[in-house]
Amino acid sequence: MAVKENPYKKYLREDRLPHIFCPGCGNGIVMNAFFKGLEGSDVDFDNVSMVSGIGCSSRIPGYVKCDSLHTTHGRALSFATGLKVGNPNQDVVVFTGDGDAASIGGNHLIHAARRNIDLTVICINNNIYGMTGGQISPTSPKGSFGTTAPYGSRDVPFDLASLVTAAGASYVARWTTAHPMQLAKAITKGLENKGFSFIEAVSQCPTYYGRKNKLKTPVLGMDYLKANSVTKRRSEKMSEEELIGKIIVGEFANRPHKELCDNEEDLVNENYDGGLAIKSAFWEEF
Amino acid sequence: MNIIDSMLCKGCDICISVCPKDVYAKSKEVNSKDVYVPYPANQEACVKCGLCEISCPDQALYVDREVE
User: Fold this and answer.
1) Residue A180, preceding bond cis, omega within 30 degrees?
2) Best of B59, B62, B64, B66 to mutate (most A CBs within 10 Å, chain A)
3) pLDDT tens track for A78-122
4) Nearest CA among A113, A132, A209, A215 for reference residue A170
5) How far are the Cα atoms of A156, A233, A246, A248 from residue A236, in angstroms, in the given order?
């Protein structure tokens, strides 16, 4: 008889449960969607290694039964690049938050996208710095409140999915925690895509973002995300005034092109006929 | 019978709101963390779509798919 437990619990380190996320945090939902996406893809779970930086969302790899690397703030993508180039056969997944990816690691993000390295980046965007006490992050919507913005944020937020699309990533999608099935499907596509895949998961933060912005319970936060999300196709017919405060969800880019590790391998083949004196991860006979 | 693990549940009520058939309801008993754990009050209405399973942030929910 099968064990009567949640189907996604078998991927987690059970001795560390329950995890430290606040009640109703979206990180757990994105984690479930990732496992569902993994089951649907042709990627082997034993071949996956997870990298994360600093933040609430970056605690996820610590709970998953796979190789994981918890790195410095914002530099998760640099560590992941090293991991991937060192052994191009493994599937590297980066879990990162909005402060980690857009603020301190913004430069790493756009350059990883430009070089199109074969990583799957899942950015959990909760619109605020949750771990340090609710400061305004680069993706906080205009007019939202935080501990550093008691009169409301005056700046225009980053549109992360469009930023990474413009930087040259080969697969970009954005979904929210209110669309877990679509998010799982996007993660499947991202894992199977050879090249830089960026999946932005807009999430609720009941503890800090919700408390300051009248979305105190997780249910209110999820209802807000559901009510204010507009699909990409529908948003193209809407004017800019109508789109203020809306979250555009859907697939932003799907244009596979040559990946960094393949480019490097070609470089070695073209110039040295494979007979390179230094040790290379691309050749088994060394 | 759908099961909610009272050791893992943190009482966020996402399962109650996300269920299209209104299967879950808040119980009057608390667990060790003083959380009112939901229970499947309307079990016959469940269509096993699994939306509550994937939306449970604490991996506490199990949907029974066995056919008798």
Assistant:
1) no
2) B59
3) 999 999 988 888 899 999 999 899 999 999 999 999 999 999 999
4) A113
5) 20, 6, 13, 10
Q: For residue B16, which residues of chain A lie inside 8 Å, CB to CB?
A: 219
> Which of A6, A27, A222 minimises the CB distance to B56?
A6
- Indicate which CATH number applies to the domain containing B35: 3.30.70.20
Mapping DSSP to helix (H, G, I), strand (E, B) and coil, where does residue A263 land?
helix
Q: Which residues contact A162 (CB under 8 A, 6 or more apart)?
A: A252
**Could you tell me the pLDDT band of residue A270, with boundaries at 50, 70 and 90?**
confident
The CATH code that applies to domain A9-259 is 3.40.50.970
Q: Do B54 and A181 touch (CB under 8 A)?
A: yes
- Work out the number of other CB atoms within 10 angstroms of the CB of residue A113: 26
Record: contact A24-B53, CB cut-off 8 A = no
In this structure, what DSSP letter does residue A1 have? -
Distance CA A83, CA A163 (A): 24
User: Which region holds residue A250: left if phi is over 0, alpha if psi is between -120 and 50, else beta?
Assistant: left
CB pairs under 8 A between A and B: 86
Tokens for A272, please give them: 């040295």
Structural domain harbouring B40: 3-62
Q: Render pLDDT for A179-208 as a digit per residue (tens, 0 to 9).
A: 999 999 999 999 999 999 999 999 999 999
What pLDDT, on the 0 to 100 scale, is given for residue B67? 75
The answer to the question of residue B67 being in a domain is: no
Contact residues on chain B for A26, CB-CB shorter than 8 A: 57
Is residue B68 a part of any domain in this protein?
Answer: no
Whether ipTM > 0.85 holds is: yes
**Chain B contact present for A114, CB below 8 A:** no
Chain-chain contact of B58 with A223 (C-beta, under 8 angstroms): no
